[in-house]
Design a protein that fits this description.
- The chain has about 170 residues and is mostly helical.
- It has a single domain, classed as MetI-like fold, CATH 1.10.3720.
- About 80% of the residues lie in helices and about 0% in strands.
- It contains seven helices and no strands.
- It has helices at about 5-10, 10-45, 50-65, 65-75, 85-110, 115-125, 130-160.
- The longest helix has about 35 residues, at about 130-160.
């Protein structure tokens, strides 16, 4: 009987960890989707400065490890009088990191729409915003769904693994 009881002592901390993981996943995924669309559209902008800033963001967050980013934000930013809690750090870093990957999904899905779709919108005397909202995005979003699903699954796995150092 004594051998059976110790594993049951682990259940409350495990449930607390599940709650933190779910909470972190939901908040980071909201930030990641917003960052994905903003950076994805910025990568397609006609203004060079906007494309460059977005490209810098994507290259920095895709080019460095999530663990390094977590450590940097949690331990280095306080030297600049910007102190974040462990949860805020996890949401910010994971959301921005996966947002950088998601921006490539957004950008590539929009570029995958055939050019004659845009030309059809122009022929119907639509503005560029109307063409994007009514013609391009409805088709592109359907192409984005499977890779975004994969990205959010990776985010779920990343919340449990990478942020465990800070959420104890």
């Amino acid at each position: 009987m004594d051998n059976i009881s110790p594993p049951f002592d682990l259940i409350p901390p495990l449930w607390r960890g599940v709650g933190i993981t779910v909470q972190l996943t939901i908040m980071a995924s909201i930030l990641a989707v917003i960052a994905s669309f903003l950076a994805g559209f910025a990568r397609l902008a006609k203004y060079r400065l906007l494309r460059s800033l977005s490209g810098f963001y994507v290259e920095v967050f895709r080019g460095t490890s999530v663990l390094v980013q977590l450590f940097w934000v949690y331990y280095v930013l306080p030297f600049f009088n910007l102190e974040l809690t462990a949860m805020q750090t996890g949401v910010l870093v994971l959301g921005l990191n996966y947002g950088a990957y998601g921006s490539e999904i957004v950008r590539s899905s929009i570029l995958a729409i055939p050019k004659h779709q845009t030309e059809a919108g122009i022929a119907l005397n639509m503005t560029p915003i109307q063409i994007m909202a009514r013609v391009i995005l409805p088709q592109a979003v359907l192409m984005m769904l499977p890779p975004f699903g994969n990205l959010l699954i990776e985010l779920l796995k990343g919340t449990a693994g990478d942020s465990i150092l800070f959420l104890t």
